Amino acid sequence: MCVIGSGNWGSAIARVIASNAPALPNVHDHVSMWVYEEEVNGRNLSNIINNEHENVKYLPGVQLPQNLEAEPDLERAVREASVLVWVLPHQFLPRLLPTVKAAMRKDAISVSLIKGMAASPDGALQLISSRIVQGLGVGEVAVLMGANVADQVARDEMCEATLGVSHPALIPVLLPLFDRASFRVRAVSDVAGVEVCGALKNVVALAAGFADGLRLGSNTKAAFMRIGMVEISKFAQRFYPGVERETMWESCGIADLITTCLDGRNRRCAERFAVVTSAHEETSAQEAADAWHSIEAELLNGQKLQVAPVTMACPLGSCHNAMSFSRPSPPSCLPYAEAFSRALCRF
User: 198 with 322, same domain?
Assistant: First the structure.
């Protein structure tokens, strides 16, 4: 098995898989984790992980299993893996997919944990799983989304996740890799619904953060969250007709929305942005971009905001023009407009 990505969430889910692997029949104990090599205090991060069994930069203070190996060579990392778990910013995919396709086993199964959407060359919205399908030339990619703050998962605090997989035969193969006492996973066939929820909740989290930063109160924040969930559901059913309403009640839906709006990185950064910029009557595009860069560097320890894939692919005006179901424009449009107009300046 190979986890492609070694950030906060990548390291946390690699820990889950590596912890489960020894107890599973027909599963090799060894788990490879591709690391984008960088130096930490003069040492290669991959060497630190392999020698000290800790990702000191992205998941400090958490011991990683000894059967988890950090591998900076992507070809070597994926070559023997029968399951590829994708956990990295979607911007890496165009560069990585050709390398993985050339080196991977032809029967390898992919699972995407990447939360976001991308714009296809014709400007249409594209699920990240679809981009991986096209890039690898495979028939299906499963997805795993849910109310999963990485640090809490890594510390075995109980949580849930939703595995979206359309082929029933893959459920007994994939589910045991992730499911454990502290990380309960439920499988559903609605892959698109699971993935859309995981992408769009990040936009609602910006609204929640702005509400916190402007001290609008819990009633207002709750309204943004409720309306945001309704809009996510309508968006999913409009653009992906096979999406099931029940998916919105899984961990990937309402639970992930709540967690992200309470404790997600987008909420934290949006709150700080609102505090910083509300002190000025007007904020220029450059000032907004500088503020986002500064906040990201201060709060995220090398990680990135999770809004870029959505805002880049779905500008506010075109999105609402395409989705006539928002009538009249709901109150959440106000923070959405703030999120899109100012967050988009940063990218």
Answer: yes
